[in-house]
Design a protein that fits this description.
Largest sheet: 11 strands, mixed
Order of helices and strands: HEEEEEHHHEHEHEHHEHEEH
Number of strands: 11
CATH superfamily: Alpha/Beta hydrolase fold, catalytic domain
Bound molecules: alpha-D-glucopyranuronic acid
Helix content: 25-40%
CATH topology: Rossmann fold
Number of domains: 1
Shape: globular
Structural class: alpha/beta
Oligomer: single chain
Strand content: 15-25%
Amino acid sequence: MDQTTAPADVPTPSAIPARSALPDPLVAFDGTAVETADEWDVRRRPEIQRAFEHYVYGYAPDAPAIEIGTGQSTAVLDGRATLEERTIYFTDLPADAPTIELAVFTPADRDSVPVFLGLNNGGNHAIIDDPAVTITDTAAEFGVEDRGVASEYWCVEQLIERGYGLATFHPADIGPDRDDPTEGIQPYYADLPGPAPTRWGTIAAWAWGLRRGVDALLENPRVRDDGIAVIGHSRLGKAALLAGAFDERIDLVVPHQSGTGGVTPARDNDQETVAAITEAFPHWFNDLFPAFGGRPERLPVDQHLLVALVAPRPLLDTEGTRDYWTNPGRALDSIRAADPVYDLLGEDGLVGDGLLYGDDKVTAGTVGTLAQYRRETEHTLNQGYWDAILDFADLHLG
Ligand code: GCU
């Protein structure tokens, strides 16, 4: 089966050989071994990408023409940070197409810093309690009412203090989180590769939106071009991982508690199964993925290969010990199964067993470019996680 181009017909899952183990990242679909970095880049990486588009997330459009609006720049956090609000317009799409309302917080006293880019579910105004932050139209419709309610989740003061920026927008700028194909950016793209059931779902659309955020950040002199990290929590962590897997301009990836459809494999997953996720959230994936419900062993790919696509770039998988639904143990298996690709590409990948907990120090001796870090929490993001994430970023983005 040649998956480097989109086949016209979609083989049914029963026509795909069953494999109960996670597919070997270094064996191509035709059964041949992948032995060099060049073979990985030229042959294996693209075929894995096509397979994820084809069987799981759907095919996203190429990079569109964009224009970045001027918007406001203003001092926030008692003058310690600069907030820039920039609208991203899709200039080749009709005037009523969605826009991205990007908010970028950077330290006021630095010229150019590494920046974490992440989708936020509350709205940009939920990040800090400051009337300077615009309540965007989508955030007014889909976000929270009160300003600053997510401040202990995004910890932007801590980021600023440590010399990082945060860039963010509401996912509904790209498409609301519901099963209505007439909403968001998707209806503006009629011609995409692949047969109808492989049309992109919402996670692919969000990931594509994140990549448009990267487009804008690369034009921003306050942002270091080689310091773009992408983070996301849960469903938005699935999107962050997908963006990182496809976009090599992203320098570091933090899928936080991303679960099924994120770092956690479909195979041997006794928590959220493919059947469960595609029934509860049919719009997240393409229309072919649900056919693997009850038979994930027929998937040509599994989520460790999405992690492998990030290689050789650093990835920290952050998980909560009591966040059972995301299945941190299986996520760790996924990380470990991706490690051989880091090795092949000349990175140290996992150090030791690749797992750090709580107060374990994230330093050059304890982590490589790939690791899982766990805290004693349920399904949430907080300062403790950010301490580890920023230590990891210090190591790799310097
Ligand atoms: C549900 C869903 C998960 C998802 C989570 C979230 O629990 O089953 O797959 O990650 O919502 O986004 O919080």
